[in-house]
Amino acid sequence: MRSNITMKDIADKVGVSSVTVSKALNDKEGVSDSLKLKIKKIAGEMGYRYNSAAKSIKEGLSYNIGVMIPQRFTGMNDSFYLRVYQQISLHLEHYGYFGILNVLSNEDEEQLSFPRVYNENKVDGIIILGQVSKEYINIVQTMNLPKLFLDFYDEHAEIDSIIQDNFYGAYELTNYLIAMGHREIAYVGNIYSTSSIQDRFLGYYKSLLEHGLAFQERLLLNDRDERGRYIEIKLPEKMPTAFVCNCDQVAYNVYERLTELGYQIPSDCSVVGFDNDIYATLVSPHLTTVEVDIDQMARTAVKFIMEKIANPSRRNGRVLVQGKIIYRDSVQRLEASN
Amino acid sequence: MRSNITMKDIADKVGVSSVTVSKALNDKEGVSDSLKLKIKKIAGEMGYRYNSAAKSIKEGLSYNIGVMIPQRFTGMNDSFYLRVYQQISLHLEHYGYFGILNVLSNEDEEQLSFPRVYNENKVDGIIILGQVSKEYINIVQTMNLPKLFLDFYDEHAEIDSIIQDNFYGAYELTNYLIAMGHREIAYVGNIYSTSSIQDRFLGYYKSLLEHGLAFQERLLLNDRDERGRYIEIKLPEKMPTAFVCNCDQVAYNVYERLTELGYQIPSDCSVVGFDNDIYATLVSPHLTTVEVDIDQMARTAVKFIMEKIANPSRRNGRVLVQGKIIYRDSVQRLEASN
DNA sequence: CTGAAAGCGCTTACAG
DNA sequence: CTGAAAGCGCTTACAG
């Protein structure tokens, strides 16, 4: 137990009641300005610090938001989720809130235990980052608390979620290639592997459709096996002029493959990626790609969860956050030829 | 205000007092086993959740630890600090604690404001991740709370700190090269640039000394200018057989330079790095390097801060956490020739 | 084995 | 403009 200075201590020193101290420190009505000033001064001198637990107990609000990351995503080198969490905690500041990180252990997920932040009433809302099992989603839904999925959605669940717009990003990127004069455009990725690879493929597909370009099976190139391990990419006989890669790391692989075979980028082939991660600038020339707007995702998540705390019946549904294209030097404008 | 179920509600339902409910739920003495069971059952059915704010106010403990990261380290792609934070929050679990991330804004650091987690009494201790200004260190020292520096120390400050053992890591790595038969070993790094580059250099130096190898000025190769931008590495006339690079990214650069000049790794030159980050496996052959033991750092930090909460006068001083060498294929055993 | 009383630090009516 | 009283949810003595 810390020996803390309380409002009572200040009150005794100043010679007023603790009610008056409370009003003064909170800039409330009903205290003369001179007394207010005096109280604040003494409080400062005594090193007074507000006890937020007392406030919590009165208001029933903890002023904390729990951010849950399943343990599975914890060992990854790519710390996308951690960067999102960081942004979330930044945005929570504006609301006087703090973020509590709660790694959801594999056991808790399997045994369908509530997260500890929930059981102990530590938070006023929970943001879940990354995919949890179907069964666990059901548990999440029974939690009597505002909640939100981030970067993940479930088709059946009614929980609000915020996800990146994979479809639109790939669509825009392909539009760009077409605007640059490309007509023979390959897509690189195993479209049965993850939903984001699939959604990105569909964006690519839509762009082709809209521009009256037929989708050619031979230009859909596989990049990984069923277990997600990268395989050697087989290039088609008749080479396309551009490659839409499902992520930057695969673009990196495509660079290597093309270079091996003596193709120059972008003069022989243009290449675009997705994610704007470290691989995008590891290659030469640097890669044109799509960047997820982490800040926007975090900002939206915080805004939504705050709205739900104020009004628990509020629904936002599934919200897409658009990324933005980062233009670099991996795409070449083709001569007008058709 | 949430309409929560309280112990009183359970007490009313069961027909006992809330004192008895409290004892039963906390497995304390003085309640018959049958009653205890009944209370727990009803509590479960009613969806009771413990109110930790009430506990906090009684005990004067928040059961939260604040982790502060200066905003400057926030934009970095490498999320070393975030990974440390994640491990910290994992280890806090064992103690029934949670981690609150508090990004220290540049303004707060300049204006020497206390962190918000401190002002609002949100935490029982603070771990500071990454370097803050000298002036801010003084502010930190006036905080009436257990505190700890992680991955950073100040020569004058009396605050406990946990840092990675750069010196020993480079020492071990150089020992390994010597054991593999190398005698002409270069160090790559601007030793006036950062303290970690310097400490690593000194570990390399000590290893040479211990093995009776003279340090040769010509084998100290610069890798960056005063502003920290990488420069082209000038190789010495007479080539060494091995390169100790101050970090993996520089090792990556060394690979490129050597390959350009037609040297094969490791048959012509061996190369080792430091950090075991993404660059270590981006090169071929993969790099032998030193990995910081993030888990050990986090574990130690949590242990220390818990000890200080229990006993505020406790001191641990400056503690070094050793990394471990990750052996890969960038080092070649040399024929016994001397 | 069970519970009435007091208190943790603060705030919200309400009375003066 | 100021303060006594009550209460937020829980726990800690202490009495029975």
UniProtKB/TrEMBL annotation, chains A, B:
- Location of the HTH lacI-type domain: 5-59
Q: Which InterPro entries match?
A: HTH_LacI (IPR000843), LacI/GalR-like_sensor (IPR046335), Lambda_DNA-bd_dom_sf (IPR010982), Peripla_BP_I (IPR028082)
Keyword match Transmembrane? no
Q: What range does the record give for the signal peptide?
A: none
Q: Which Pfam families match?
A: LacI, Peripla_BP_3
Provide the alphabetized UniProt keywords: DNA-binding, Repressor, Transcription, Transcription regulation
KW Cell division (keyword) present: no
Name by which UniProt lists this protein: HTH-type transcriptional repressor CytR
